[in-house]
Amino acid sequence: MNHQFALKAIVFAATMAVAQASQAINITAKSTTDYFNLDSSIFGQMGYTVEPWSVVNGSSSVLAFCIDPLTWGIPSVTNYSANSYAPSDLVRNLYESSYSNVFVAGVYNSDKAASFQLALWSLTNLPGSVVLAETGGAFDNNDAISKDANTWVQAAKDYSYGGVSHYSYTEYKSLDHSSQTVLAVAAVPEPETWAMMLLGAGMIGFMGRRKSKKSEQFAA
């Protein structure tokens, strides 16, 4: 098995995994963060609670953020399709520069996730659709949430993309438009990891080939 074939096998396996994920997908609330900010506005209304999602496929679950805020999110809707998603430059830059901030010391943080959701909405809708003030929160953590969101939006605008993507993107869309469209990402393996995967695939192919030859000799 040469490296080119092994790489194709890995890509095919990943494609099949996404295809299978579209067969039975639920979304459930990941966390609820109270965000009501009198001085912020989202589509002309007062800044309100944001809620990241868990996309559940069998026993696996991935974090997802809404990219369709004008549609109400309905938990446990199962008629979703999973498709690869090509982000805009700003969305890509947001993930590259700030997605890791959602996890504090590797642990999911609901306030940081709320900030990321607000920043994502700011960059996936028309300018002025989402206005995030850093004061005026009805809850103690609101100012910090708005501040982080604004900081990360600016970081996305300032980010210098060097052509190396650290994430692959999957869009989960409700087929009957009854629920929000959400976006999840997966870390792209580092080159060293790809090399190890290719080596492992090559070893499996080599061992299978040896076993096949031994079987042929025995049969003879």
Describe this structure in words.
Helix content is 41%, strand content 23%. The protein is an alpha+beta fold. It has one domain (3-188). The protein is globular, with a radius of gyration of 22 Å. It starts with a helix and ends with a helix. The model is unreliable at 1-22 and 192-198 (pLDDT under 50).
Biggest sheet architecture: 6 strands, antiparallel
* Count of alpha and pi helical runs: 5
**Mean pLDDT, as a whole number?**
81
Q: What is the strand tally?
A: 11
Task: Set down the secondary structure blueprint.
Elements: H1 3-21, E1 26-29, E2 37-42, E3 45-47, E4 53-57, E5 60-66, E6 80-84, H2 89-98, E7 103-104, E8 107-108, H3 110-124, E9 130-131, H4 142-158, E10 167-174, E11 182-187, H5 191-219
Antiparallel strand pairs: 1-4, 2-3, 2-9, 4-5, 5-11, 6-10, 7-8, 10-11
Helix pairs in contact: 1-5, 2-3, 2-4, 3-4
Protein name: PEP-CTERM sorting domain-containing protein
Signal peptide: 1-24
Pfam families: PEP-CTERM (PF07589)
Protein traits:
globular, Ice-binding_C, signal, single chain, alpha+beta, 220 residues, PEP-CTERM sorting domain-containing protein, three-stranded antiparallel β-sheet, six-stranded antiparallel β-sheet
What's a quick, concise take on this entry?
It holds the Pfam family PEP-CTERM. The protein has 220 residues and is α+β, with helices and mostly antiparallel strands. It has helices spanning 3-21, 89-98, 110-124, 142-158, 191-219, and strands at 26-29, 37-42, 45-47, 53-57, 60-66, 80-84, 103-104, 107-108, 130-131, 167-174, 182-187.
